[in-house]
Amino acid sequence: MDIKTLVLALALGNLSLCVALFFFEQSAGAPAGARRVNSLNGVGSPGTATWARARQLQALAWGLVYLRGTLPDFLTIPLANTLLLAGFAFDAAALWEQAGRRIWRRYLLPVLVLAVAAFVGAWLLQRTPSERQLISSLAIGFFVAAGAGALGRGWTAGTLLRRYLVVSTVVLALAVVARGLLVLLLPNGWSWVSPELVQGIGLVALYLVMLGNGFGYLLLVRQRLQGELERLEVIDPLTTALNRRGFHQALAPWLALARRPGQPTALVIVDLDDFKRVNDHYGHLAGDQVLVAMADACKRQLRDSDTLGHLGGGEFAILLPRTAVEEALLVAERVRAALAAQPVKAEKAIINLTASLGATTMRADDTTVGLFQRADQALRQARAAGGNQVAAQVTGSAAVLDA
């Protein structure tokens, strides 16, 4: 494959990515259900718009380079290289945004302006093509390495895909820089290394950068969204507490540990008194406000090692590792008092909150069903005492803690 064909492949490759993304994003105008599916597949993800702009700039730049000799030089040399450098800068910016660093303008834009000024200045001063190529190679290598730096954040916790992209991108950045240096220092080649071979290797490296930044970025977006989907499967989006499924998953290892001698683990069930009345009298929006306030009040009374779950309606569960029943009762009482002291300001009224709480501890022979049955028995005892109470169930008998 000759150099001109490689340039055409770079132009068409970037253009095809632009076209594919364009038609993919058109479905964002579909009905709400389809829009939700699209959002899960990457539309609107951090950096997507910047990544698309990078593809457009690079497609136009390589197209102008391919037409060198047909169009005027000011289009195919200074303008084409300006667009190319901007494209690689936006490539790096997209990876920075994907990594949560939206401050890329502070660092990447000054380098872009400096690189463009140096290249255009070299062209105006009629410096040699090798010198101009060194400027563009150094700038492109910097932007590619900057993108790799964004991917490399949190290396130890990174996925294999992310690590592979970091290593391969760094290697390609070095190849691009080496191309510029060799063209300048060895204009006539060296031994069996001809100038054409150096140019070809450099363009192949840029082609691989295009593929890596293109498909690699899309795979990263997909991976990130897959992780978000998995998180949403176990999180209640309203209260940000674990949902029923997530709480049962968090509970499972502690049930297994309960079979071994050691400190006990407690379970507390919190049920809002008359939550149905809140929904019936004030509407579901007010009910949602109450649930959020209830979750926040519970979280403020818990340790970092404790786990809060929303079981449904006005019912929450609290997992208290390494906690005896006496300590669980104290935590439950703090939660009850915090709820009673925190009225919710709804649109039409101020809603006072009270809750009944049932506590128990895990036994060696417990199952999830048996554990919750025992906590529910304590909860029913608290309700039977008039609500706004805390009760504990350990060996079949319940004890109510007066409010």
Short description:
The protein has helices at 3-26, 32-40, 48-66, 73-98, 104-124, 129-151, 160-185, 195-232, 244-257, 275-282, 284-300, 325-340, 368-384, and strands at residues 266-272, 307-312, 315-320, 344-345, 350-351, 355-361, 390-393, 398-401. The protein is α+β, with helices and mostly antiparallel strands. The strands form 2 sheets. It has a 6-stranded mixed beta sheet, sandwiched between helices. Strands 4-5 form a two-stranded antiparallel ribbon.
Descriptive report:
It contains 13 helices and eight strands. It is α+β, with helices and mostly antiparallel strands and 403 residues long. It folds into two domains: 3-232; 244-401, Alpha-Beta Plaits (2-Layer Sandwich).
- Give the count of structural domains: 2
Strand content: 5-15%
| Largest sheet, strands/sense/barrel | 6 strands, mixed
Extract low-pLDDT stretches: 28-44
Give the number of DSSP strands.
Answer: 8
> Which secondary-structure class do the elements indicate?
alpha+beta
Overall average pLDDT:
84
Query: Helicity, in percent?
Result: 55-70%
Order of helices and strands: HHHHHHHHHEHHEEHEEEHEE
Radius of gyration, in Å, reads 31 Å
How do the strands of the widest beta sheet line up side by side?
Answer: 2-3-1-6-7-8
Secondary structure tally, helices: 13
Give the distance, in angstroms, between the N- and C-terminal Cα atoms. 83 Å
Shape: elongated
Domain GGDEF: 263-395
InterPro entries: Diguanylate_Cyclase, GGDEF_dom, Nucleotide_cyclase, Rev_trsase/Diguanyl_cyclase
GO molecular function, one term: diguanylate cyclase activity
Enzyme class: transferase
